[in-house]
Amino acid sequence: MLTSLSIKNYALIDHLKVDFNDGFSIITGETGAGKSILLGGLSLILGKRADLSSLKDDTKKCIIEAVFNIEKYKLEALFAAEDFDYEAQTIIRREILPSGKSRAFVNDSPVNLSSLQLLGERLIDIHSQHQTMQLTDNDYQFQVIDALAKNDAVLKQYKQELKVLKKLEKEYKELLNFQAEAIKEHDYNTFLLNELVEANLVEDELQALEEEYETLNNIENIQEKLSEAEQLLGDEQMGALTALTTLKHALQKLSSYSIKYEDVYKRAESSFIELDDIFSEITNLQEALDADPNRLEVVDARLKMLHNLMQKHVVSEVAELVEIRNQLQEKVAVTENLDDSIKTKQSQIASKEKELNTVAGEISKLRKAIVPELKSQLETILSSLGMPNAQFKIELSSATTFLPNGKDELTFLFSANKGGNFNELKKAASGGELSRIMLAIKSVLANYIQLPTIMFDEIDTGVSGEISNKMGDIMLQMSKTMQVFSITHLPQVAAKGHSHFKVFKEDVNEVTQTNLVKLNHDERIVEIAQMLGGIEMSSSAIAHAKDLLN
After folding, report:
1. What pairing do the DSSP bridges indicate for beta strands 24-28 and 499-508?
2. How many CB atoms lie within 10 A of CB 274?
3. Is the whole model's pTM more than 0.70, yes or no?
4. Cβ–Cβ < 8 Å for 546, 492
5. CA gap 312, 306 in Å, rounded
6. What function is annotated for this protein (predicted)?
7. Could you tell me if 533 and 515 lie in one domain?
8. Pairwise CA distance, residues 397 & 323, whole Å
9. Which of 64, 145, 503, 506 is exposed most, by the fewest CB atoms within 10 A?
10. Tens digits of per-residue pLDDT, 289-335?
11. Radius of gyration of the chain (CA)
């Protein structure tokens, strides 16, 4: 519920702060006193867009702040989804800067207008004849029926299952689209795959092949150099090994004289061992050399094939060709198995549709069971509101497709006159009748769900006498379970409020300002008496006002 409202520098309001109670609150005031300004300021709290013309003094910023007690509204999930800081006493603030920019805050955290609008819809319902057009909306009519049918849980289940179905249908469509494209590419992908498979790719073979090719292609030069190296090392007269052998023997004779000679001998011996090993390796390399022109052709062909494949697929490593081969295998396999995948997806969709039909059937059953009760309650209330011949024809029929809220199509028809034809609400009911229908629906809903604070903006326009009295009784009854405001010109309605606020204009330093004050009991008597008889109150008007308040 709305517990307080503060408005600074907005339209004709310089500074206004007022606290509100639960129950039924009345707001009265002469035409032009500023009730629309009050509603305009409140609508900014609910997310309406603002502009610079809203500022009373365009050199200062406008600040509108409202405090709400939201313990009963079960808004924790909404606060979490919108990343608001949840507080049982929630403060919403709007600021309009002289630059024209607007800022919004929920519990001092900045928020955007779309998020603020989502929250505002759950906090206050400002109802006027303009909002009665909501009644003609099929979605709203379903909301009313579902509220009475207590369909919350089953509707939540339905929407979750519908979300799964939509996902399955999207995947099925993607499979069909993929199949259409894959068929076009299948032959080409198969050709590429076969080419790579036949290549018998080995990830590390390229370097080995290139080394083998260089060896085979330069074998005469290699043989010549190896032979030269062998002679330099192994020649019996001039070879390095012969000289090193002589050196080693000479140093060996010195090694017994001193440890320093022994160290030199050991180094010479190590050098001989290493050089002798090199000589053996050169001999082995010579023996391993095989001038095989056929092998050279094979290696050359293999290298050309690999380089052509790498150039074709724009890669630089055989490992990348292997990865492309694996990807092509997956694509070809998927294409070849698409029919099975499509059949599986069709089966999943059929199974989910069966589940959804069951849930939709439960929703429809609960709706049909409550429709007679809703029809009876609405007609009874409207009869007391001066529409004794009002009748509704509310019918549900099965839809051929899954709709966002079930599988029902709703016909919500109305006739205001005896013997009259049933028609859609927007065609069969006048603005005043729609207002009374909306009041009837809200009063019924209040018995089934926790409604937000509701503000009826002159909903009683065009009615008087006993009907206005009854409208006041209905709003008073609603206020037992929710906070209700009524902006009214009717004394019969005004007298029923638990609290009474007056909107008025006054001149301060030759500047007109709008203000809002809470009236005490004596002030209420005066206000209602003036509503009955004008500014010049008669004793009978005062007596009548007291009688109404009592």
Report:
1. parallel
2. 10
3. no
4. no
5. 10
6. May be involved in recombinational repair of damaged DNA.
7. no
8. 57
9. 506
10. 777 778 788 878 888 888 888 888 888 888 888 888 888 888 777 77
11. 46
